[in-house]
Design goal:
The structure is a homotetramer of 341-residue chains. The first copy, chain A, has 341 residues and is of the alpha/beta class. The first copy, chain A, has 14 helices and 13 strands. In chain A, the strands form three sheets. A seven-stranded mixed beta sheet of chain A has the order 2-8-7-6-5-3-4, with helices on both faces. In chain A, helix 1 crosses helix 11, helix 2 packs parallel to helix 11 and helix 6 runs parallel beside helix 7. The first copy, chain A, is globular, with a radius of gyration of 20 Å. Chains in contact: A-B, A-C, A-D, B-C, B-D, C-D. Chains A and D meet through helix 10 of A and helix 10 of D.
């Protein structure tokens, strides 16, 4: 059986496990106040090009989204996302459980359009009864998006300008950030993200770690009493070292970028493989998630030997499936897949 | 420097790390639907003596408390705890953030008294306007308690009887459960806990794991849509294997019990050591947390070479400190401490 | 100046104020446990044709919506509404503040389509990962809708069938219910609503009362500890008599229906008036809200002498405005308006 | 039968009902944007001696408490009250439903002690792990308290000083404020309350209105998007006129103070009556609530002809009951009671 259904089917990059082993018996303070967290933060600050950035480690994506949103919004605020935003669709109401509405704008292959955002905000405040509605208090985007697509630098800057005009923070969910940064088709660097976003996170869970997301506030200020909010969200890991050691390793010798680049290379191969065999793509994804249109009969046949994700029905005779590569994908597995196709 | 400040200063028991290494590259389903989670559940069901028990893995204590409470209470319900209950004091309002009040009863060295519980409930329902108040919907206890003390089997049974009479579930926070079960001064087995509690958890974070708490519903039924609640709480780990592999290892060859017993043995030695030197104890703890009364000058002196937890002021001249042993405490370290005292 | 901007610009029908006066000094129990509430409930049960219906009085619409939703949903539940549903758009996030997501379906002039609802639910449960999403736990509709439109009896029955199949309650927001029931173009009776809905409310605020909404559970059972939920929502009026006396009067001698009928008659006149003068309607509303398309210049001119609600821009040269009639609209005012047009 | 069980057993002072009648058919804007609300605000600003105070009208006490607390606290904040504070005991978890913990200090006949508050805050911030706990974000007191007792001016000033030092707002629940201000045993004026509190409300429901509480921010600034919070709490009355007209009347010609004074006079008579007959008082209340200790046999006898509130058991043979006077209490009724005793 071949496994391409997601980018979190293996454990962690072995360097991370080794470091966990090596440091295992060192007595360390809990709750993220250990030297590995400190060291990881320093390296991340350097990587993002903001030496005073505030960095914090959390365990998983949904948790990180709801913690950041809860910390940065007031009770009357909602958060703007696209209609296919992860927080709107796939987080079991975590944001609403924290008391906040997710306000939606159209999705353009997963992306939010800055002009549509500006229109929305202008129209919102033009209504004299707007205070009867949820006040937009944050913009949430993901990069790569749910569809593996990427914002251009100009698009991020345009969103940033609108947010700045309305004084609402721009929050970028980077659960798969490495794969976005290492794409062959991006002009966006980690520094660009820090330049344009008020807060973002560098995903570990899907990029080589057992778990862990590194939240970055480039401006250098954590939200007031952020530790309390993290604890309140059940997100304060007692053994913060688990996150610190992993991110410290990921940001040593560019490991995070190297393994992301590997996944991109594997994705490009996979793409070529499918393209050469005449398969069509549901959309052009420049990252590690590839969306292929399969004839239903082919899908049924392939399912016997390949795990992939059902994405949606394309038409009565075709199905869209998702193939993911990751830091762990090997050339051998791709070759096996090639033979199967 | 010697480190006795808590039972989560080291990483994980090395068997767990080894298993994480060995299984690292196996492709597995996410979100706890892998074979290691399945295997761990089977072993836990056997260990608790309830072959049909429902088991679920979460990451940390506060998260587990708020997930269980959110899943089992209705909007009008509160949860009863003692005034020093972890959920009341040290969880940054996580329970209230989920919309539920923590109702309090007096603490007897960390324990709730069944008669006082019965009185409270009788008085509550005797008030004709009780519906203007939060309805008691669950009883929360911890075992060991915040003070390392333990319920007797008879005490658990008494609490169970009161809960049964009022049809409210009894929930036992077992963040340090191993240390309670392996105490020399307990008549409570894991089976007894399953017999008396509607839900409890077996703590991993403080008993040898990197992270992880195993929630057990002996009755065999998870709360409706429990996965949704877990996700909503940001507690659904993408790589559920991290929890599955660890608990599978902890419940293989009684590892969980053996390392807990080790911690108890170390605690007994530490206790003797202090007692022989004439130190007094703030309370008699039968588990891995020991509360010692130090003269302030001694405390200041000792602090230079030993990490311990400040607990409270005893009087103007004395301070109460906590020493913890754990699965990782070694005889050598105890001997070094002995020399210092 | 003429006032047609809404149906709550006057106080209360004078019979209600008179009864408040007459009963003012009678000492009565608080919190809705007085004889006028009791009498009003009895009359409402008779009017809906369910002698065992459970009835409860709340103060206003948003409050009633969030109280009912909070009482009937579990933490993992969301409520399905159309994209223009009042709870989705105009309640400042009250539902999300209670922890619940509003799930949306397309609006057909304010109405939900039963087939689309069935499709949505079927698709939802067909996804094997549906537990990562908010579970649909209720269907919310309003009748009349935000656009003054009405469900037919067959449409309500169709929604009821889908809800029954999925065992989710159907909740009808009847803030303007009287105007719906008395429309010339409806085949829906109050009994039909009780037959098809699990819970609904009979609006008082917009139909002759100072304030007040009568919630009806035709099945006869209030949600568990409903009083506690009402209190928790800040919706338990100390002087429940204010609501009891008003609804008792509204349901004496069919006053509620008579004053609603009057508003409908006035709306029909107003409609004729506009139609005869060649104005177009934005949509065909069979109730007390009429949506007229005005040339912008006409709109500006009219604004000087008539209060109406801006609804939306129709095109660059036209504006849609809303005219409301109510129990308080007089023939004289209509004639004055006629002259102006 | 005689009725003394509470101060909300009658409707409204008849001047208020008359004004509601007189203004009933005037077309007015909704949601508190009418001229009567405006006029009432102006009069209240004058009465409190803060011409720039911000004033807002809500419907009832629990609603007002949870709206103010929700508006002024951040997610990590709790509100400090005494153990018998209304928000802690009698509001069905409304505050926790909004996500906030109620932190408690001892009650001294219903009052909070400024020194204990200072100690609590000092101790709280001295704990280096305080961010694991709910951050104190507001102090809530009531005046009169649940026991009818009153703060002295010096006591209010002392609380104010502590709050100012820690930069947390002081919030005074004045559900029965009139009865406190008109007590014979107070040195506190309405201006003093405005001088010392950051926000307070002037209760209408228990002091002559059908419903309504006037919230005052002496500093002149409403919390950001307060209208949105009010709406979110289901507390935005469509016909705001109902509150505006009533408060406008209450603050015309000192009606609020005159009817409060009347209640105090009646309470003093009642007190004398009981005292002369040799009854003991559970505590010395200077306001309209009087707590009398009755022999159980006397209580049973009296219950047949007098409605009073059961307060608590005093001992096996005695019961504490509450008698309330109000704006509506007449001398005749007191004389009838006198005869019965």
């Amino acid at each position: 059986m071949l496994y391409f259904q997601s980018d979190y089917i293996e454990g962690a990059h072995e360097s991370l496990l080794k470091r966990l082993m090596e440091t295992n018996l060192e007595p360390l303070s809990g709750y993220g106040e250990d030297k590995y967290c400190e060291s990881a933060k320093k390296k991340i600050r350097a990587a993002v090009g903001y030496p005073n950035a505030a960095v914090s480690f959390l365990v998983g994506g949904t948790q990180t989204n709801s913690t950041i949103i809860s910390a940065m919004l007031s009770n009357y605020h909602g958060v703007i996302a696209t209609t296919d935003g992860h927080i709107f669709v796939h987080e079991a109401g975590a944001i609403e459980h924290s008391g906040h509405k997710v306000l939606t704008l159209p999705s353009h292959n997963g992306k939010m359009d800055a002009d549509e955002l500006a229109d929305y905000l202008e129209t919102f405040y033009a209504d004299p009864t707007y205070e009867h509605c949820v006040i937009p208090g944050m913009v949430y985007i993901s990069h790569p998006t749910e569809f593996g697509t990427l914002y251009s630098k100009a698009e991020l800057q345009a969103l940033d300008r609108v947010c700045a005009q309305y004084e609402i923070p721009l929050f970028l969910d980077g659960a798969r950030l490495g794969y976005g940064l290492m794409s062959n088709q991006t002009d966006v660097t980690l520094k660009d993200i820090a330049d344009t976003c008020d807060v973002f996170y560098i995903g570990g869970t899907k990029v080589g770690a057992l778990c862990g997301e590194a939240v970055v506030f480039p401006g250098g200020k954590l939200p007031t009493h952020f530790t309390t909010t993290i604890k309140q969200q059940g997100a304060l890991l007692a053994k913060g070292r688990v996150l610190g050691v992993q991110f410290d390793t990921l940001f040593t010798d560019d490991l995070y970028f190297k393994i992301s680049k590997h996944a991109i290379n594997m994705a490009e191969k996979l793409k070529d493989m499918f393209a050469k065999k005449g398969y069509s793509f549901y959309m052009d994804s420049p990252t590690n998630q590839q969306f292929i249109i399969l004839e239903n009969s082919k899908y049924e046949e392939l399912k016997k030997e390949v795990c992939m994700s059902f994405w949606c029905k394309y038409d009565d005779n075709h199905t869209v499936v998702r193939f993911c590569t990751s830091w762990a994908t090997t050339e051998e597995k791709l070759e096996e897949l090639d033979k199967l196709l």
